[in-house]
Amino acid sequence: MSIIEVKGLRRAYGGRPVVDGISFTVDEGEIFGILGPNGAGKTTTVECVEGLRVPDAGTVRVAGLDPIADHDRVTRLLGAQLQESELQPKLTVGEALELYSAFYQDPADRGHLADRLGLTDLLGRRFGKLSGGQKQRLFIALALIGNPRVVVLDELTTGLDPRSRRDTWRLIEEVRDSGVTVLLVTHFMEEAQRLCDRVAVIDRGRIAALDTPAGLIRGASAATVISFTPSRPLDPADLTALPAVTSTSRDRDGRITLHGADDTVTALLSLLARHSVTAGRLRVVDATLDDAFLDLTAGHGATDLIDRES
Amino acid sequence: MSTVTTAHTAVLKTEAKLFRREPGALFWLVVFPSALLTILGLIPAFREPGAAPGGLRVIDLYVPVAVLLALSVAGVQTMPAQLTGYRERGILRRLSTTPARPSSLLLASLVLHAVVVLGSVLLALAIGRLAFGVALPAQPAGYVLALLITAFAAFALGCALAAVPRTVKAAQTLGTVVFFPMMFTAGVWIPVQSMPETLRHLVEWSPLGAASQALGQAAAGHWPSWSHLGVTGLWAVLLLTVAARRFRWE
């Protein structure tokens, strides 16, 4: 059963379409990822779900409610963590939890929530003195304090060190395990691959693909990555002629990397045998979501797009 | 209580706590006007009777100046800095995603500034009366009315200054630029009543110049003239219109 429905969503800024016909549904209890390069329209999409922006066209429903027309009711069942937002620097963690819990009729237990997010020792500390990871934990707590059915987490782990990022991932899994649906905006492939049940890849305001992380990887044209150091140089033409090869590259040390499919591996092995070449440190690995993502959003750099639409 | 009322109360309580943690703002709002009054009062010449128009002493004219100073610090410095900060930090946006409304922060800022400025006004009146024998306003109702209209103008200015600039830095720069003419027209350097006639007539068209005249009249026991109250009131309406049109929650 779907808790979020987005149909034909469009939003333009100054005549430039940022979200250009996006549709997806999120099922209750899943972690749904929205993945895409900077400026792809991810944040604008979730802002329409949160009721912070009015769509130019299309419909958005959260548990059957319109986030604009039924804003009050939507805020009671949707918790949000916003990208690049802060709190009053001199507000303590405990005061923030107390304040935000006063907004809801049936708030979560503050002590329990603080405990779950490792904030108990920080209750007296001011927001301005928190580390990046601590701030994000507080934001998750504030998103959960109203006992929501859905939480929207926008670039939650951007700017965190690898350890805090992994800790945060565990927290997100716990949130889902407690029955809350998670809409996760990210540009980290590893994060999407590890956490999401399904991922929508957004590129230039449209959905480029929507599948499970494994499905996205399978669907990519280069699902297998082969690398090795040949004992003797090989003819590049022989390599590009291998079946299903999508790309070949050779680094300074002569190590060769091929993107292809299962067929490529078999054909490469016979090619090496024919030429009596041994393959040093041969590695055959499945492509990651990273490769699938680059494949899906190929053909343009993300750097020329603006970072954040406002 | 409805959720909205509960949310307003919770925001007000939290903001009151946070206000107490801003010694800088409290200094400029409460201590600075009265400290200026005290320093000027210690100058013997300022306590000479008849040195100012109407047979008054200079120090008599500086009590309303201290009052206007407190109001302009609120309207030009602390209120816009606070509100633009809340917008820039995304705090107003965050509140929009909860059942609370971002307007509750605006409301809390107005209420708290009103309370603190009232304290500052009472302190200035008390110091004037107790330390330098300045008579309390002889027309209290007129004084309160003039004060209310001036507060309305000052807070409308605060909202307008929070609405027009996009960043905290721009708000501070604009605030500083506006602060000096505000202090001048409030009579910090020369009390409005002692200004040369042409200058005085000009200054009477400014919100604080007119307010200064109105407060002076009420202090002396007259009902403040409606033309002065009207000028300040018009400025208030004008500034509020600008604020309402330009204010952005994000």
Automatic annotation (TrEMBL), chain A:
Residues 4-229 form the ABC transporter domain. GO terms for molecular function: ABC-type xenobiotic transporter activity; ATP binding; ATP hydrolysis activity. Keywords: Antibiotic resistance, ATP-binding, Cell membrane, Membrane, Nucleotide-binding, Translocase, Transport. One of its GO terms (cellular component) is plasma membrane. The keyword Plastid does not apply. It is found in: Cell membrane. Pfam families: ABC_tran (PF00005). Its EC number is 7.6.2.2. This is ABC-type xenobiotic transporter.
From TrEMBL, chain B:
The chain crosses the membrane at residues 25-46, 61-84, 105-131, 143-164, 171-192, 225-244. Signal peptide: none annotated. It is a multi-pass membrane protein. It is found in: Cell membrane; Membrane. Residues 24-250 form the ABC transmembrane type-2 domain. It comes from the Bacteria. One of its GO terms (biological process) is response to antibiotic. GO terms for molecular function: ABC-type transporter activity. GO terms for cellular component: ATP-binding cassette (ABC) transporter complex. Keywords: Antibiotic resistance, Cell membrane, Membrane, Transmembrane, Transmembrane helix, Transport. Belongs to the ABC-2 integral membrane protein family. This is Transport permease protein.
